[in-house]
Amino acid sequence: MIKFVIGTVPERAESLLVTLSRFDKPQDVTVICDTHATKGSWSNISTAIKAHPGRGDDWLVMLDDDTLPCCNFEHEAARALKSSPADASVVSLFWGWRSSPVERARALGASWIRTAYFVYGAAFAIRSSLRGDCLDWNAKHVRTDNQIGDARVSYWAAATGRICYGLAPSIVQHRPDQTSIVQGGRSNESFQAIWYADDASGVEWNDRCVDYGKTAEQFMRSHAAAGNIINL
Description:
This protein is an alpha/beta fold.
């Protein structure tokens, strides 16, 4: 089973409707709205994780409200996740940083980029059975004022050895007509998916992957030194 959730804020009402319009069954999508101006997605993500327990191979799919899912998104997300590697704990359905692993995956006919920590908040899936572990670890090891949701999920994955994957091609795109609320109004035009399939029906997903390359230890050291992570 897959549960779809969109995290939003009050000022994104119009953008939210565009994202919802890409779902075949928008009435089945849960919308969670951060009304406290936390300037980050962790409030919505943690609320979604608490509200949607799951077992076994269930997935919770989280999207931001400034994204454009591919056509027939529910079906394509389910089809891609069904082929995900067995050790996948988190799957990014959007990949917008460092084109080289995407290019390698594309050249080799691989559907996945394997990484020790990289999670994209624009759209990602987490195994529902791991939700409690993610929340508990964050409560102990991340400052409460750090509301960067994808960073928090990345910290947890890196610290606990949970393997993350990025999907190639992406099946969610950042809407270029929107700007970031939390990054100084940065235009989404500067943060597009490296390779996006608006129609993924012809993609033959497989479990082959390429490695992203950087280690969890490198990632954790740099963020601990910056004071983002505590009590390690």
